[in-house]
Amino acid sequence: MTEENKKRLEALNQKLINFVEHPWILKQSPFHIVGDIYFVGNSYVSCFLLDTEKGLILIDAAFKETCYLLFDNIRALGYNPEKIKYLLLSHGHFDHCGAAKLVQEYSGCEIYLGKRDHFFFTERPDLILFEDRVPRFEINNFYDYDGVMDFGNIKIRPILTPGHTPGTTTFLIETIHNGEKVTCAMHGGIGINGLTRDELESNGLPLSLQQDFLNSLEYLKTLKVDVVLASHSHQYNMIERSTKDDGTGKAFFDNENGWQKMLDQFMELMKKIISEN
Ligand SMILES: [Zn+2]
Fold first, then answer.
1. Is residue 24 a contact partner of residue 9, using CB atoms and an 8 Å limit?
2. 115 — phi, psi (to 5°)?
3. Phi, psi (5° rounding) for residue 106?
4. Ligand 1 geometric centre to CA of 165 (Å)
5. Cα(224) to centroid of ligand 1, in Å?
6. HSE-CB of 28 using CA atoms within 13 angstroms
7. What is the CA(90)–ligand 1 centre distance, in A?
8. ∠ CA(209), CA(211), CA(217), 5° rounding?
């Protein structure tokens, strides 16, 4: 591994260790986005609460250490975290599913994961610090990428978008906002960390994930998206937008191809990494 990559990885690990040892520094107030969708995550990882006719859905659970912040946020919005019926995981990394066990134990929710990330929990627990940062939980379902999950007022189409991990799943979410259908999209893992040749080889993952990443973004670019939901709160200025919103959700609507621009930006970063292989 190159010195530069080593340093970058060490810095990221240091940052994550700092977060889990001092979880309160990630405290972030929850906010309404559009329709029946709310932000309940922290200042590093996004979690979304969806109030559907078929029960509460949580998308991603963040770190196990920040679970109390997640529950506080859900309660602050007037919901009961015991009532979470489904937890949809974007991918198997510990910053997104570390709290899955706690959420499941507390609510009895069913958990969904992308099938191609299941190997983290069986063959490669070392890659997600399984049992340490990710207490064991029951995976009840794998996503059916040919179908739409119908929750009445909310419909979710899971899309397999490998790259960041082999089973990263992107969600296309339809909700009703002011009487009109609105399409929101959350890329399940747009970060290119872990995708250099160095990192893939040292983790024993296929180099083809680089091209998979580009292909999946190329496809996502063809989708019409009204509201971008970022899987990390700092991406797409989610938090900043919330401070500018006047309660109508206006600040979250994208009128300038923001989805496409965001995908383009990460495609460029990926192409740069490939050229340096
Ligand atoms: Zn990740």
1. no
2. -55, -35
3. -75, -35
4. 7
5. 25
6. 27
7. 9
8. 100
d(CA 106, CA 109): 8
Place of tokens 């590093």: 44
Task: Quote the tokens at residue 27.
Answer: 């405290």
Query: Structural domain boundaries of the chain?
Result: 24-275
Distance 208 CA to ligand 1 centre (A): 17
What are 80's two structure tokens?
A: 């009961």
Residue type for position 126: D
Instruction: Tell me the C-alpha distance between 172 and 193, whole Å.
Output: 23
- Residue-by-residue pLDDT tens, the chain, 277 positions: 778 888 888 898 899 999 999 999 999 999 999 999 999 999 999 999 999 999 999 999 999 999 999 999 999 999 999 999 999 999 999 999 999 999 999 999 999 999 999 999 999 999 999 999 999 999 999 999 999 999 999 999 999 999 999 999 999 999 999 999 999 999 999 999 899 999 999 899 999 999 999 999 999 999 999 999 999 998 888 999 999 999 899 999 987 899 999 999 999 999 999 998 8
Please count the residues of the chain: 277
Helix or strand run (H / E) with residue 221: none
Residue 44 CA, ligand 1 centroid: distance in Å: 12
Q: How far is the CA of 164 from the centre of ligand 1 (A)?
A: 6
**178 C-alpha to ligand 1 centroid (Å):** 33
* Separation of alpha carbons 143 and 160, rounded Å: 9
- Residue 84 vs residues 71, 100, 187: alpha-carbon distances, Å: 11, 12, 22
Phi, psi values for residue 15, rounded to 5°: -60, -45
pTM of the predicted model as reported, rounded to 2 decimal places: 0.96
Fold of 24-275: Metallo-beta-lactamase; Chain A (3.60.15)
